[in-house]
Specification:
6-stranded mixed sheet; 5-stranded antiparallel sheet; alpha/beta; about 375 residues
């Protein structure tokens, strides 16, 4: 019996529509140059315009921080506290279907708290996966052209929603790796405590390797159609996951023990998930080394589309999409692809731009679209 015949006899498949995650309100205080910002956005498209340096990216960053506990452009949250202030805070009201909740973050030099409905979450991962948010900013162009670490972070974001414990595994692996290296340098390759740290590295590193492998498979499956819809039909994309460690803890631990002398000489661990790579090839050649700038930009955008699809599937909800001034980094053809993507996505969208006239959306009327302007950290409805 042919596949077509099987399909014709099968009952129609009814897919549940995932609930949409919506920011209903946002209040940010002492957050970068936002002394006090109050936002009541549209449930569909929100366009925030203004000159450079006025706080547009900071607004998106506040949304991202209150949802994920992290910044997409700073390594340390302390960098986000307004100069002269002791604490920064962001509070958001978020709805998911018929359920509404409040999320709040407060942080400074001496304090850092995260609360869901005024209660501490059981784990940081429980908080960070509650409100899925996908951001695409100019720095994300490095997904195709930059180092492997950028692509590993993408895999980790996807893995966190499918396996929330993977975030803890990554943190524990990193700490054990740092301690192992310290012992190697201070006490040499025969120090007895190396076994303890290598066992911890093997346990958490193997679990992280398995989580990343699953995330890479999901990203690869979602990336192929996204890239095909944006790139020339003649281009062929292949995606591969190249692990730096092993998914089996016993194998992992044996390999670490055999590399002690090597790792002592090089000053860092030569084995483990810190060396993972999501390999992207266009027409059989490394996209990072050989793809044109235009191809790399399309691939970067396609990777964000894939990330959104993977998070949607793992979380069972439609994520919020943040687009930070991407039109300034894309040529007209690729900017058109971004607009097509905006029209196709079902979620709430926030866009920052210096040229609001580019965002023509006659299909969005009434409350479906809201326009704002930002000047010197002050927000107003356009």
């Amino acid at each position: 019996m042919s596949v077509r015949a099987l399909e014709s006899r099968s009952a129609p498949v009814t897919r549940a529509v995932p609930p949409r995650i919506l920011f209903r309100s946002l209040v940010a205080r002492a957050f970068r140059n936002l002394t006090e910002l109050v936002l009541e956005p549209s449930p569909r498209l929100n366009v925030v315009s203004g000159d450079n340096g006025q706080g547009k990216t900071s607004l998106l960053e506040a949304l991202y921080v209150v949802a994920t506990t992290r910044s997409f452009r700073a390594d340390k949250l302390l960098e986000l506290v307004q100069e002269g202030a002791e604490l920064a805070s962001v509070r958001a009201t978020v709805s998911e279907g018929a359920i509404t909740r409040e999320q709040r973050v407060t942080f400074g030099a001496r304090a850092r708290t995260w609360k869901l409905d005024d209660k501490r979450p059981p784990t940081l991962a429980a908080y960070a996966t509650r409100t899925p948010v996908i951001v695409f900013h100019p720095g994300d162009l490095a997904l195709a052209s930059g180092p492997a670490s950028v692509r590993r972070l993408l895999l980790d974001r996807v893995a966190l929603f499918a396996d929330p414990a993977s975030g803890d595994d990554r943190a524990r692996f990193t700490r054990a790796t740092r301690e192992r290296q310290r012992v190697l340098e201070e006490r040499g390759v025969r120090a007895p405590e190396l076994e303890v740290y290598e066992r911890l590295m093997a346990e958490h590193g193997a679990r992280l390797a398995r989580a990343r492998a699953r995330a890479a498979a999901s990203v690869g499956a979602a990336l192929a159609p996204a890239f095909a819809s944006m790139a020339s039909p003649a281009l062929h994309l292949t995606v591969g996951y190249e692990p730096g460690g092993a998914p089996d803890a016993a194998d992992f631990e044996r390999e670490l023990a055999s590399r002690r002398a090597v790792d002592l000489r090089r000053g860092s661990a030569s084995y483990g998930p810190q060396r993972d790579e999501l390999a992207l090839c266009v027409d059989g050649r490394s996209a990072r080394r050989h793809a044109s700038q235009g191809q790399q930009r399309i691939l970067a955008l396609a990777l964000k589309v894939a990330e959104l699809a993977c998070v949607r599937a793992a979380r069972g909800a439609e994520p919020v999409l943040l687009l930070d001034d991407v039109s300034s980094e894309l040529d007209p053809a690729r900017t058109g692809a971004v607009y097509d993507f905006l029209r196709a996505t079902e979620g709430q969208v926030f866009v920052t731009t210096t040229r609001p006239e580019l965002f023509v959306t006659p299909e969005l009327a009434g409350e479906a679209r809201a326009d704002f302007t930002l000047a010197a950290g002050r927000l107003s409805r356009a």
